[in-house]
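Q: Hi! First time doing this. I have a protein sequence and I read that you can turn it into a structure. Is that right? Here it is:
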Amino acid sequence: MNKKQLKKTTEDLNIKIYDLLRMLDPTKTGKYMQFLIKEFRNRHKEKGYINYSPLLHNDNYLDSIRKKCKNELDDRIVDYLFDILNSTNIVNLQVFNDLLDRGKIKENDIQKYESFTDIEKAIVNYEEQNHEDNIHEYQEIYKDDRWYIVKPLSYYTAKIYGASTKWCTSSRETPKQFYEYSKEGILLYVMDRANNKKWAVHWTIWKGEKEEMSWWDAKDKRVDSIQVNIPFGIMNRITNHLYEENKPNFTYFSEKSLINLKKLLKLEKKSTEVREHEVLLQETHGENFDINVGGTWVPTVTKPTEFKVDEWINKSLEYSYTLDAINKGGIPD
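A: Yes, that's right. Below is the predicted 3D structure, encoded as structure tokens:
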């Protein structure tokens, strides 16, 4: 089907502001149309349109789309399309196309892909089979035939295990959120493979003290832990690790993972955002951490504390209290 034929099949997608305003006119003759059009234009003008395209990043695919908007209406409709199609899917399409152009995808007939899910599966399949500079590192917290709990220790791993979600820590658009969450606390991904459901949990650590715990569903909507449909035994595994762990994920990044991060940052070393990342790295791994690959920094990795079952059972009453407090959204003293 060529472009002209395809366009003929999209009459249901053609929307005109005039026709929508006509629906608001209570008369059969369109008596109030001139009035409605005048009012709409005046009010639309009052709302104003700030052309922020110079502030957008050229290397950001979604921003490059926004730059094509000619007015506020275009921008709002594009926002609606991002929402309906899922901005993550839009970015995945760009990634998929890049891999396709480089001959990295085996099936190059787009008509054989039924949905965005198929597109993402093709990307993840390629990444899992071709690590190249991508560092696939993580700590396995628990695994059985159905449940999988993992602590992502590299941006690449976060993207793989966060596939089909809208988590900012798994975004293919930018690694910024992943590194920030990894530096600020404990980040775990919880996967129910039988029902294809995923949750992310993050417990913020500030100056050595654990503060706010947050749970997020696959749509990146914050939920209370009591709303998460996870069996008590599995939830036990999660909370046990969270209570025993006292260091943020960033502490356990390997030298390879950090070098990979430095390569990413080196591409735009002069930008403010990258400078903030470099400071973040130095705060966590020492002031001698050099963004230039091959710097003098040598990582010191501390293994997580081994969980002692007997000791935890002896604290069962205290545990019951703290778990109840978390389920209610509070943070125990």
